[in-house]
Amino acid sequence: MISVCFITKNEEDWIEEAIQHLRPLVSQVVVYDTGSTDQTVQMARRLGADVIEAAWPGDFSTARNESLKLASQPWILRIDPDERLSPLMQEKIKAFVSSAPDDVHAVQCLTRNYTNSLEAIRDEGFQLCSPETPELIWARSFRGYLEMGYTRLFRRRAEIQFVGLVHEGVDPTVQGRIERRMDIVFHHYGTDPAQIRKKQKRKQYKELLLKQTQRAESNWFDWQALGLEFLEDQDFENASKYFMGALHKTDFSPNRLNLLSNLGWCFLQLDQFKPAQEHLELALSIDSEHLSSLLNLADLHLRQEQPSAALKTLNQALKAHVTSPLLWRALGQVFGKLNDWSRSQQAFEKSLNLAPDFVEARVDLAILLNHLDQAEAARSQLSEAFKIDPQNTRALKLSEILT
Fold first, then answer.
1. Is the whole model's pTM more than 0.85, yes or no?
2. I need a surface site. Which of 3, 139, 148, 347 has the fewest CB within 10 A?
3. φ, ψ for residue 314 (rounded to 5)?
């Protein structure tokens, strides 16, 4: 009933498990490989996949549409090698396709993107994993996640094709009804920054996004993604430009929430305090407990030499985010500004108890300990920080002082 179509390049770390775990669900596996130099192709063939080897065609839609030409089953599953479906989710998909109404031509499902990056949790709207997170076992010890809806399953029909240079999708070409099934969750592991760096995708991704945002069919997500790329490069001028463009392309509150928070952060970095505050307060009018917006607003208060206002904001955040290492680090900084050294140290230590690999919090603690004339304790914290990030600028500067 279902053909799964993969697009691959150097996916040997993922492809075998990706194919094997879908055995109970799919009748055919198609792999369109765009120039792997590792064992991806050989592994896929050994597992019985129908493999096409071709040069990279220049955009993702072309590659995906080429893979569709080899599909033979009535339904097509769109999934990437670094994504997984639990057995329960596979059973839901099987049940759906076996009884789908004729007018349903595609199915939108929930994608849960995972990360270990505290920066992504702060800047990109990721939620912290918790015991209440559905299918938590599939989080694979990742720290946080971001959920989005994508069309993942569609009928094999000539008119249904992918469009878009990047963030490609079939929705504009679907003539029948698109069913929303947000209870079907795809687990996506390749969005973690460490995985993106390993695959060296950022340059290609950014170039395609620049082209995509010039097209009439570009959407808010394309503009937001490009804004995040510039944010990663600390190019706050361009980041704010594309976040603002994304904001004008969506009126859906959850989408606007992260855009407003990111705009506030960009304006803050550009020392434009008034628009920073306006955008952050607008975000908090949508969700008064939005962690990123509260952290950014507290940072704004600190820049304005208003530590008491910052503490009030963070205490508001504490009601809903007591397990956030980012929040406890921010509290440590605010208590430091208030010369409350004991509570500052306790807050930094709490942050590190929640996230032992949080380098910046560890450096903050080392700086505080040095200020308190506890040089040996400061050196110990620096030693731990260097194990995680040997090139950390602040740690290197403090190390010189302590030498």
1. no
2. 148
3. -70, -35
